[in-house]
Each structure stands twice: as C-alpha cells, then as structure tokens.
Write a structure and sequence with these properties.
The structure is a homohexamer. By secondary structure, the first copy, chain A, is mainly alpha-helical. In chain A, 44% of the residues lie in helices and 3% in strands. Chain A is built from nine helices and three strands, in the order E-H-H-H-H-H-H-H-E-E-H-H. A two-stranded parallel sheet of chain A has the order 2-3. In chain A, helix 1 packs antiparallel against helix 5 and helix 2 runs antiparallel to helix 3. The relative contact order of chain A is 0.16. Chains B and D meet through helix 5 of B and helix 5 of D.
Chain lengths: 319, 319, 319, 319, 319, 319
Amino acid sequence: MITRFDKLQIDLPHPRNPSPNSAAAVQELLGGKFGEMSTFMNYTFQSFNFRGRSKMRPFYDLVANIATEEFSHIELVSYTINLLLSGTTKRGKDPTATPLASAADARNSYHFLASGQQALPMDSQGNFWTGQNVFSSGNLKLDLLHNFFLECGARANKIRVYEMVDDPTARAMVGFLLVRGGVHIVAYSKALEKLTGVEVGKLLPIPDISNKRFPESRKHEERGLHQILYRFNAEDYKEVGTIWNGAHPEDGSELRVEDASNEGFTPPDLDEEPQLTAPIGPDIDPDMFKDVATKLFGSGVLTKAGKGNGKTKTAKSRR
Amino acid sequence: MITRFDKLQIDLPHPRNPSPNSAAAVQELLGGKFGEMSTFMNYTFQSFNFRGRSKMRPFYDLVANIATEEFSHIELVSYTINLLLSGTTKRGKDPTATPLASAADARNSYHFLASGQQALPMDSQGNFWTGQNVFSSGNLKLDLLHNFFLECGARANKIRVYEMVDDPTARAMVGFLLVRGGVHIVAYSKALEKLTGVEVGKLLPIPDISNKRFPESRKHEERGLHQILYRFNAEDYKEVGTIWNGAHPEDGSELRVEDASNEGFTPPDLDEEPQLTAPIGPDIDPDMFKDVATKLFGSGVLTKAGKGNGKTKTAKSRR
Amino acid sequence: MITRFDKLQIDLPHPRNPSPNSAAAVQELLGGKFGEMSTFMNYTFQSFNFRGRSKMRPFYDLVANIATEEFSHIELVSYTINLLLSGTTKRGKDPTATPLASAADARNSYHFLASGQQALPMDSQGNFWTGQNVFSSGNLKLDLLHNFFLECGARANKIRVYEMVDDPTARAMVGFLLVRGGVHIVAYSKALEKLTGVEVGKLLPIPDISNKRFPESRKHEERGLHQILYRFNAEDYKEVGTIWNGAHPEDGSELRVEDASNEGFTPPDLDEEPQLTAPIGPDIDPDMFKDVATKLFGSGVLTKAGKGNGKTKTAKSRR
Amino acid sequence: MITRFDKLQIDLPHPRNPSPNSAAAVQELLGGKFGEMSTFMNYTFQSFNFRGRSKMRPFYDLVANIATEEFSHIELVSYTINLLLSGTTKRGKDPTATPLASAADARNSYHFLASGQQALPMDSQGNFWTGQNVFSSGNLKLDLLHNFFLECGARANKIRVYEMVDDPTARAMVGFLLVRGGVHIVAYSKALEKLTGVEVGKLLPIPDISNKRFPESRKHEERGLHQILYRFNAEDYKEVGTIWNGAHPEDGSELRVEDASNEGFTPPDLDEEPQLTAPIGPDIDPDMFKDVATKLFGSGVLTKAGKGNGKTKTAKSRR
Amino acid sequence: MITRFDKLQIDLPHPRNPSPNSAAAVQELLGGKFGEMSTFMNYTFQSFNFRGRSKMRPFYDLVANIATEEFSHIELVSYTINLLLSGTTKRGKDPTATPLASAADARNSYHFLASGQQALPMDSQGNFWTGQNVFSSGNLKLDLLHNFFLECGARANKIRVYEMVDDPTARAMVGFLLVRGGVHIVAYSKALEKLTGVEVGKLLPIPDISNKRFPESRKHEERGLHQILYRFNAEDYKEVGTIWNGAHPEDGSELRVEDASNEGFTPPDLDEEPQLTAPIGPDIDPDMFKDVATKLFGSGVLTKAGKGNGKTKTAKSRR
Amino acid sequence: MITRFDKLQIDLPHPRNPSPNSAAAVQELLGGKFGEMSTFMNYTFQSFNFRGRSKMRPFYDLVANIATEEFSHIELVSYTINLLLSGTTKRGKDPTATPLASAADARNSYHFLASGQQALPMDSQGNFWTGQNVFSSGNLKLDLLHNFFLECGARANKIRVYEMVDDPTARAMVGFLLVRGGVHIVAYSKALEKLTGVEVGKLLPIPDISNKRFPESRKHEERGLHQILYRFNAEDYKEVGTIWNGAHPEDGSELRVEDASNEGFTPPDLDEEPQLTAPIGPDIDPDMFKDVATKLFGSGVLTKAGKGNGKTKTAKSRR
C-alpha cells in the first residue's frame, strides 16, 4: 500500500526552449527499456515477489524502498516532458487555423494525436514501454546483478539525453536523477557486496564518466545527496541500513539512511491547450456546466473556462 | 511523490488448491489490457498530465486518488498469483530429480523460466502489459469516458476470472476488487455527471450482473465498503468530495470520503523455492555468506538458509 | 464501397464436438500470418493502392474481386470458431458455480476473458493479426508473386488445421476454403503468366498434395467450383475475364467467370452464454428493459431474455 | 457476404500540397488505435460474434450496417494518403539520379520502402494496426459502450489531424468523416439509450467542440447528412430503424434511415511512379509483354507503359 | 566473414520421449530473451560495432570469438527441438485420418502449423525472438557487464529447462551448454577484471548452484572443457589469450586458449514427416520429378520419395 | 558449426557524407522484414530443420551455403551503417557542450541512445527485427518459393535504398549486394526448376529493372560475380553444383560453383566517439587501467586512450 503527496522531488524550472523533439528525446528516460518505468516496475515486482523474506529482510527492505522512490522519478520525467511540450503549437479554438501545423514534422506524433501534448509511457522512438522489461528471476543474486546493470544502462541514457538537450528543465531533471540513480547503483553494488564479498562498487562509474562533470548533478552531490538512501517507512523497512552503510565507492564519503518525508515542491499547473480541447473544448454547454461549476466551486469558473487560459497563473505564463 | 507501507488491503487467505493454470488466469487481472496495471498507469499518467488543474481541481484530485489506490491492487493481485504458484513444483536442491516436470504442461511457462514461480506484468496468455494501454487524450470528458469504460471492462474480466477459478485466495481477492473497482466505476460516472448533467451511473451495472451475486463481494458491501472513496492525503487532495457525494446509483446508499490510513494486513512471507534457487541456491559459499549474515543479522541465519525452508513460519506452511 | 448481405457462403453444419482447443487451432486460419485476415487485407489495400490502373485494368479488377470474396472467408472462419466455442462451458447465471472452470486449461484464454466464447482476429497461439502482414510494394509483378506465395502458405495451413481437427463444422469450412483459395492461387498464377509468359501454374499444387484427397473439397470440385472466379460487379470490374480464362493447371478443366450474387445461407443464430452475460446479464433492470423491448419489438421479449435461453430456436439447440 | 463497387463516398479533390509528412499524419486515421481499421474491424467482428441475435435483432442490424459503411472509410482514407504521396519524389527510371533523396528525411520511411508511395494499415508513427484493437466481449451493453467510446476517440483524432494538415484533400476527407463518424456516435448512444433508458446522447459532442466549426463538415450537415443511417440491405437488416429514430441529440433534427445505394464517385487513377517500378519497371521484357498486352487489351499499350506516365490522364496530372 | 561445416559440437543422442511440450520448453533456450539467439546476436553486433578496436584489440578478439561459438549453440538447440518433435504425430499421407490430432493440445501450435515439427526462433511461450534483445551501447565496460549478466540469465534458464525435461537429448544439450556458457561467463568476468581490477569472477556461480550437480555437465568439466576458450582463427584473433588466462574462479584450474577446428559430429538426418509434406508431399508429379531426380542423383530416388520414409536410415529409426 | 575471419567481402569506402538519416534508411537492409537478418536467419533455420536430407541432399547443400554467405551480408550492412554514423556528432568529453544536439532531430534516436552511433538489428523506422520473419514450413517447394519471393522483396528494398542515399559507402555496399542477392534469387529459381520443371528464372528481374542500371553492380557483373555460387566447405556440401549450373536466366552466361576462401578485406577500425564513451569514457581510473594495459599490451596505451582519438589511424581519419 502507498499514499501519495501532491509534490515533486525538485522545483522544476520552466523550459527556455519548449520543443517537441526535445520532449521526444526525454521520453527515453520515461518509457525506454532503461527508463524510469523500468526501474519502478522492476523493483516493485521484485518486492511483491520476494521469497524467503523473513531470512533476507534487509534485501527486501532495500528493494522495496528503492521502488518507492522510482515513482517520484516517473513523475518528474513526465512533468519535464509536459513542460517541454506546453505551448509548442498555436493556441486557440479555431481548427481551420491549422494550429497543429508544426506538429506534422515532429518526431513523435503521439504527443499531438494520442495525448494532449503530454507524456505517455513510451520511449524516444514512440515505442511503448512493455512488461517484458521486468526481470524477476526469484534468485536474489541474479536479480541484484540485473538491477545493478539496469541502473548502469539507465545512467548511460541519462547522460546521452543530457548531451542531446540543453534546455534547463531537462537538465535540472537529468542532473537530479543522475545523483539519485547513482544512489541506487551504489545500493545494488552494496547489496551484492554483502551477499558475496566482491567489491562490485569498484566497477563504478559505469559508463566511466563522473557525475562531477554535470553541473546540475554536482550541486546536489556537494550537499551530500548522493550519500542518502531514503527509508519510506521507518516502522516497516527497518533493516535497510544493514546494507546501506560504509563509504561511497567513488568519493569515500559516508553513506546514511534518511527517513523520507513528504516535503517537496508543488508541481507546476500545466497550461491549457485549447486547440487540443485540453482539458475542455470551446463548445462545452455553458448553462449546463455553469450549474455544475457553481455546485463544485461555488463561483463562476465557467466563464473563465470559456475564455481559455486568460490570466490564471499557469505553468507557462509564470516563466 | 508517494510513500509506502508493508501492508496489503486485505488479509489474503492461503490457497487450497495452488495451481499454475489458476495463476495464469489471474494474470489477466494484473497485466491484461483491462488489468490493474492498466488502471494504475492510466490514472497515474492522467494525473501527471492534467492541464488546467487550477480550474478543474476536483477532477484532478479524483483521478490522483484513484490512481493511488490502484497500486494496492497490482500488489494484491501479484500476491494472489505468488501464493497460487507456491509449492506447485517439487521442492529440493537436486536438479536431476526433474523438479519442474509438472511445469512443462503449464499454460504459462514464464512463471517457471522467467520468474521464480512469481507474478510478472503479463496477461492470461503470457503477453506482457504495454504502455499502449494508457489513454491520456488531455480532454477531460473523453478521458473520464475512457476511464468509465476501462473500469467496466476490468469488471467483466474480474467476473470471468472468478467464474474460472474457485480457489479461496483468488476469490477473496476478486471479491474485494469487485467492490473497490465498483467504487471507481461510480466515481467516474459521478465525474461525468458533474461535467455534463447526464446520469451515467444509471447505466450500471455493466456487465449487467450485480456484485451481490458474489459472496466475497457482498460481505464487503454489507459493511459499506462500496460507499467509500479513499482520500490519500487530506491536505493535498481537498476537493475530491465535491464529486464523490450523493447516492450510490445501484443501491442508493450515501457515498462518503474517508481519509486513507496505512492500516492493512501484513503480506504473507512467500515460501522459498529451492529448486528455483529462490531466493538463494544450494551452493552459495557458506563461509563467505556466514560472515555476511553475522554482520547483517547478528545470528547464524546461514545454517537455516542452507537447510532450505525448515520450520520457519512461511506462507505455505501456515495453511 | 461495398454492400453487405446477411448470408454465409456455405450452410455451416453444427459441431459434433465443440472444443476450445479446436477453436484455438482454427484461429490460425482467421488471424494467422497466412489467415483470411491477411488475404482480405492484402488484396484490399493493393486494390486501393494500384497505380497506373487505367493501363493495367485487368489486374486491378482481378485483385479487387478476390479481395471482395475474402470478406466472406473471414466471416466463415469466424462463425466456425463461434460454433466450436458455443456451449463449451457450464451455462447459467450463478458465478459461484465456477461455470468457466474448464476454460482454465484451454489453450486460448482470450476466448473466455476477452470475448464471450467468440472469434477474435488472432492466430492459433492467441497472437493478434497485424498490419505488418500486408504487402503492397507497388510493383505489380512482385505483388502478384507475393499473393501467389501467400495463397500457397495459406493452403498449407488449411491442410494442417484439417489434419488437426476432425469436427464436421471445421472440415466443411476448410474443405470449401481449400477450393476457393485454390481458385485464388490459380488466379495469381494466371496473372503472372499473362505478365511474363512463365507457366507458373505448373508449380501447383503447393504443398504437393491434391485437393482431391479431402472429401469436403472434392465434392465442391466435382461440381466445378474450382473453375469459377466471382465478379462482384459486372459493370465496374469488366476485364477480369482477360486474365481468368483457359485451362485449370491441375485438371485442365475450363475456367469461367461468374457474376456473384447475394445467394447464400442464413448464418446460425449463436446461442446465448448467460454465464458470460452474452448478450445480456441476469440483472438487467427488468422494468426499464421491458419498456424498451416493448417499443423495440412490440412484445414481451424481456421475460424470455430474463429467463435465459429457454426454448428459442438457437444454433446449439437446433442440432 | 459482401459485394463491392468501384466507387468512393465523396469526390476526393487532388492535393494542393502533396507531402509525405501530411500523409504520415493521416495514417493515424487509417491504422491508429482509433482509426478506421479499428472501427471497421470492431463492428465486423461484433456482428459475426453476436449471440442471441434473434431476440436482440435491432442491435445486430445496427452493428452490421455501421460495419459495412466503415469499409468505405478505410478506402477513403487510403486514397487520401495515396494522393498526398503521389509525385513527392523525382519521377524517372534512372536510379543513379537518387530520385528518392527527399524521402530520407520523411517521417515514415515505409511509404517509400515497403510500399510504392502508398497507404499501409499503420498509424502516424508507422506502427501497424493490430487485432488487439478489436473489442468483442459478448456483453451487448459493454460492447456498445466500447463502440461509443471508440467513436469519440476516433473523433478526437480526426479533429487533430484536421488541425495538423490543411491540404484540401485531407480536409475534404476529414470533414466528411467527422459527419459520418458523428452518425455512428449518435447511433451507439441511441442503442445504449434503448437498452438502458439513460440519455447518453446528451454527453455529446465529445470532445466538446462542434462539427459546425469545420467548414468541410458543416456543408454536409447543412444538407442533412448527419441525420441519415445507411441500411445496406433492406431485406436483411430490417430493424435498424427501431433504434435509429427520434431527434438528433445535438441539433434536434429528425433522424432517418436511408437504403444505401452504390452511387458514389469514381476513384482517382493514381499516377505511376516509375522510380518505384510502380506498377512496372523500365526493363520489363518488351516483346514478351507486347504479346501479353495485345491479348489483354487489343492494342499497343506496352509502348506507352515503356515510356512511363506520358500524357495519360492520371490523378496527378488532372490537377 | 564465416565459413561453415556440416557438424554439431556434440553427438546428440536420440530422444527417449519425444514430446511437443518438452520441445516447447527447450525453445526458451533458442529464442527466449536469454536464449542462444540473444547471445549469438549480441556478441555478433558488438563485434561489428566495436569502436577503437586498434587500442582495445584483446576485447574485440574475445567478443568476436565468443560470438562465433554461439552459432553452434543455436544449431545444437535447434536440432534438439527437431528431434523432440520428430514422430510426435501420426505419420502418413491421408489427411482424413486426422494425423495431427494430438497437436491440438500441444502448448505451441506453431510447431505444427508454421513449421514442419521444427524449431523456430521463438521462446517457450511461442513469442518470437526480437532484435530488442541486442544490447550494444558502445561503452566497453557497460557492454561487458551486460554480457556477464546475459550469460548468468541464460544459465538460470538452462538449469530450469533441465529441471523441466528429463529426456536424454535435451539433457545432453543442456549439460554441454552449461559448460560452454560457463566459459563465456568466466570470459566476460575476466574481461571486466582486466579493465577494472575488480574480481568479478568471485560472484560465481550465478545462480548459486554449481555445474557439478549436473551429471551431463560434470563429465565435460572432468575432461577440462570448462577451461578452454576457442579461438576461431589464430591469424585474425591473436590477442584473446591476454584476457583468457590464469585460474578458473570456481575450481582454480588453469585456463587455456585452443584453436577451434572443424571437428565435430555429423548432425542427425531428420525423419520425413509425410503428413506435413515435409519435405515433399504425396502428389508431387512422379514423371516430372523422376527426370529431375535422375539428373540430380543419377538414380531412381523418386520411387523411394513417393513411398515415404521406408527403410532409409533416418534419425528416428536409428533409435 | 562455423569459423570466422576478420574480413569483409568488399573494401568498403569511407562515406563522403556521413548522415544519421542515411544510416537510418540503410537499416532497412539490415533489420527490415526483407533485410539481411531475414535472409540469414531464414536459410540458417531451414538448413537446421531440413527433413529427409539424405534424399534431397543438393537442396540442403544449397540452402546451407547461401545461409553462410548471408552472415557476410549482415556484417557488410552493419559496417556501412557504422561508417555513416561515425563523426556525425560533436566529438569531445564535455557533456555540457551538448555534443549530441544534432541527434535530437535524427529519425532514429536509438543510434544515439541505445547504441554508440552503431548498427542494431532494426529497420528504417527503428522497429526491431523479429523471428516472425523466419519461414520454415518443412515443405521444400513452399520453402523454396518463399525464399525466391523473399529475395525479390529484398532486391526491391535494396534498389529503393540506393535511390534514397547517394553516399559512396552505401552505394558500394548496395551495388555489391544486388549482385550477390541476384545470385541467390537465381539459385532459388534453379532449385524450383529442378524440383518442378517450371522455368521460374524467366520471371526475372523482379522488380523489372536490371542490375545493369546500377554502376556499382555492373562492375561486379562485368567480372562475372553474378555467375558464382560459393561453396563454403567442399567436403561437406558436395552436391550444390547439381542445382547451380547451366545458363544465367538474364544474360545467358554460364553459372559456376567456386569454393569460398577467407580472402576478403580488412574491416575499417571504427573511430572512437568519446562523447558517447565509446569504447571508454574520460574518467576511467588511470592508475588502475595503466596496470591493466601494461599487462595486456605491454605498452603505455592508456595515455593515448586518455587523450581520445589523437593520431591513431582510424576509419574516419583515413578518409
């Protein structure tokens, strides 16, 4: 069971250059084979499936906790994509003005046809994420090795997307995730180390380029974010610290467990895109909806809705 | 952002007739087009993607809250599958004894080859869940209509799996989910009603067979579980009650919002399956692991691990 | 543009041994790579796409006409599957009786979960038909060669399904389609011959086993059915006879064009399966539906519907 | 069974701006999840699969009739794509001139490699249509709800493609299909209404933008085209009028059934594309083919064919 | 470039219990995500793609050599499947005898419909191998880590198939491949060790169950087969020995490079299956083929072919 | 069993215009339905699967030999793609310089995210090759017909890629493969002719455009390359000459078998792409790797590696 907070892990800046092709590239980090959907779902299923957990509790606690953080990562990547797509077509209510003309040449047409300029669980080629990406063999050593490899593959993709897109929204997100993903890489190497005695952490970094080369990562590492593993419920996942401890294999700093809180940052209110009838279209029945609105909100919201995204403080206009 | 608790929504009984083919059937409710992965991911992405939420807050709050509960549902179905698969092959460490012989005729070979007799995000034919199942058009009315339809399709599948498998574990899970899924159907019908004034709820039940015909559902409805929508964070999702209110369209009882808590039931500790080296195999280096174990648990866990699933109180042996 | 008649090409007998696994095998002829969906869609798209048709009219007319007949073939295979599935589970309205218990071991679970014991465009492994199966290169010679190969592959599959299932419904269908598919093989060999002068027809039969070995085919060939190409609109497809003429390459009989008519056989009325709420469930609101029914049919249909499939003359009960 | 006419539902204008990327966008309406292949195949299979039709005849008749019209829609969209692709590369017989150079940057390479600048059953990302898109649960209410949702989703896509492409060929097609698809939306809402008494039609339009905003639709609605349901065989589908009657839910005009005729418009003769050897290549054996041609057409067609698309009145040159 | 020999790596015994479901299970080792198609194709593409090989030559040589051996592995698994399928249906030429009746319940229908009781590149659920299984990031450390993980996953599957099927053909093949795959695991661990200094080999065995527990593996290890890396061309791949040397991480024995030769064992001549017209059908034109045969073989082969598989010494009859 | 040589069939020139979109187009010839992966795998599996080979030996020998050559073709196409991708992004070690910026608009993002600017087994739309492309019915005539068709389809694609890309690397490769693929087309037509007496070769060329029109093919045909079938092991595949003999169907020249040798051309050493950490990244631990390097190569390779691709004679710099 989970509970949810209306918060993001970081305060996501608004894009300087919203761009459908940048958004398309970022999709790899969401729905690619090595994207956040894969990390989220791998660890989630491994935690549901964990056999003999009474004996191997620390490993179970570790996997379950990392799974939990991954939800925030699919969230963060999705918001990045949504921001990169907002306002990239001509806003308005008249379809004859060909408001989506620019979208005809965009690499990923699903952003404009299947979604309302929004994220979907697909990769940078518009291929959808699939459950085939979940590995859960039941053998702990093999599953941990998989997770270690998965995180390294995910890291390679993050680096490459960073090199492809220089928009500050994308880089803030990637920079942060390089650090947090780095924690997960180390966590799985520590787990393998506990199980086998082999110093797997010494293989790092994979690929062999340091997080320090990315300013948006470095700033987080400077305040020690790479040393912290979150525990999402102190009561339920007590033993995670028996694995997560000792020195960080790359810089030798001391690792520590921290109880996760629901602190975070309010997610941006995404602009309306009236030409996509997102969220509502120009011909919603005014009288009908006014009644509804009055009941729902106790005020004349409808009029505003009818007028499109006027002065409301929304994501795009706050830039 | 989410946090997680090591709890299940119900106290899942142990199977009377563990069976690979029953487990294979139940997979439809996990990874099928209309399975819980689909409901979880549809609402999750719709919540990330919601445009103009400042104006349409109650709808956003509704979708985000239902998404949250769906996590518990993929969890519950996964545990059901895991229990139905536990102990269905010959336990032991000698591969020459052909311990998986019975699996050769099982409908879904992935349960024995790709997983350690465990759930994977696939359907009853062993086809993996795909992100194509996520619908997020950006238009609120269309997304709500989709969700209403999705939940009805999910309900049809639940009923059919119930009719296919009579094991008490499966039926306890399905019975509960028919009630909670029923809440989500009503929620989306209420949302459409608020938006349009059309009494969509009067279409129910779809398919036209009442939850009352399922004893494992009826008992939950008798204590009013079908009237409650969970709010997962009172602070963050204030307005869900402006949609979830009034009379239940099927029995007229009064709907109410309840703040979700982390109460629930301890998930079963799943038996080891040594013939699948789940979680560890017979040849793990004893000296190496003993050191590790001592450090980790401060006791001689390894000896027990070496001996397989002796007297530990595990899922299977509690039956 | 097309028009449709409520008729089947043959008078399909009722199965002697309805069987989910027989139905599963027959699916290959519907949604397999070489199934009727493939022949229907290949020729349909090739006809839409035909370039330079004013010069090559006879070829266009041929492809368009064969495409048209293929619709009747997807229809015929679908009805066969539906009949083979009817009554294979326990009929009734009580889900607790586990009416679908037998379905848990059936090879194709979609017949019971995704459909109401009904055909879907998938193959014998439950994999869905895909548009990748359509070949339309634009080069006439290559497209004709493809079609010739496709029909030979389709013939191999028909023969193998015949050898797998001995139920009279399946064999009546396969026997008929071997003959009509045989016409299409010859048609494409004739077309290649007209275009190139090579006696492609002499390659037949492929695979090298004659239709004469199948009693259910032989009876149709004895009345000359293998000599007839249907023209679906004498006005619009005048020139098909410039290709379809001369001697049949296997038995030397004279080929002839015949104008297709809407004669045919009334399709069976498929039994209700109340346990699958197909077409309606036990809890449809009686008062509501009675009003509707009265308006629709002018009589008390509802009572009967409410009672399940009593004495109505339906497919299954007519046997 | 069907019969076919060499006609299109409308007189399709020739494109002003043929464009591979416009063609790629239009593919969504052909082979997308919500494209015409989906509507055609859903209703076709639902009609084959309809259980208990003797009691529920009007619903069967409705579904079968709508299925029939959908064939004309896959046809119309395919021709639109073919016209948008014609002449978009350098015509000629010399491969060293790199005649397809411009195609290297086109979004959908299959148009140039897998087809001869022609339509294929795929979507706007070049992903092929799949039978997974067919929903046929056997439960009438659920199937009708699905169809209603499917048509609304299809409508959203049509609107978005309209907004993306301003070429008159594309817009004439979309404008017409918005009207005819609109009829199908209303038809399924009426069917649900008859079955349940709920005024489903009042949810319309979904998305909430009226057809009146599209000039190419408005002109058809002004002559009442949105009020007509076609009956494709008066004899066989008698009862469709018991559902299709009363007032149109959007403008209150009176609905009426009309017997479909084979009237329509001659489809354009698509230009040859010699660089793609479509339909034949430059090196077809002249002597061989002359003989063939003489027999087939009684004239020296070959010389012309050998010369490419000289003065023949073809699609492109008629502009 | 390669050259090929008509030889298998081992002398494959004939099955004692040919069985379609055993064959279906073995398919996982051919076309599964962790099957031999995956190892073959991963290393083949990594070798084609290797950047900077002049500097990193030993690694290139290693990957290219392992790739080469994998071809023999897809070959060996394919023959195993073919033998397990031979003679599992009723042999004969009369289709009305329902010779494939037993196949209707087999887990994998493609063996009887798409192939002539033969191997295809698919897995144990009949899902086809896909190029998505190829990982080639360009980063050497990451690619080596992937390969190490891939081989461990492959090992887990081999063990599980061994435990599922006790037929001597299957076990001889798996026993041999456990040893040779074991060489590849060690090779990649050595490569990682050379690159990073981390003793990756100490993680072995993964899963933690020794090859010694499998008699069919043990016999090969007893003669040192696990110590040998094959070099497929002494001239071209000189430097493989700079990686493959030192002690075996599991038993400390000395590793050595051996130049591969074309020695091996004649593959079995697979029985004809006349009911599947494999390789030819009963109605091949006798006169025509006799001429051909005479020319080809200089003797009256045809008569024999016409008579089916009489006394010819074939795979099946040699048992 | 195979052995491998570090050679390519031709001396591949370096590209004049490296281009991601050209590389994307060429992928169709590698991983498309009609690409070299398909020819390689079809014939390889057909050879493993060949039933009754003792009687039909010449056909077996033919298929096995053609399969062997196809390996060189996937190799040649892969190197072409790798060369077309080399140096298409900004080389360097600083990720903040957005070195992959140009890749954001490339048609195939996998070249930059999933690979290190390298070939993968996918087609021109980035869809991965699948085992579904393998046809192996067991019936010899049908399999040969398939192969003949497959090669014609492959030829059409080669021609179209040639027309799309004018870079000399791509055209040298395509020109050569048109000739060698042409040999395979003729080989399968000869095989069908031997089996049936039908002059299938007279259908050629398909599509109807001669290889003579392609200068890069003509030069090979002028030296007779189209007349030679390679035998990859004179001992093991003796009888291939009983099929491959007589006159070439297009120009009447005499066909001959030639024993393949390992002659060929050294493959280009592909440039490093440091921004993709291919093969190693900037932060590989210098001390650690220096030790390794010294042991491996006996010299100070590391320094060079640390400095990137300085003066080393690599593919790109040799141009």
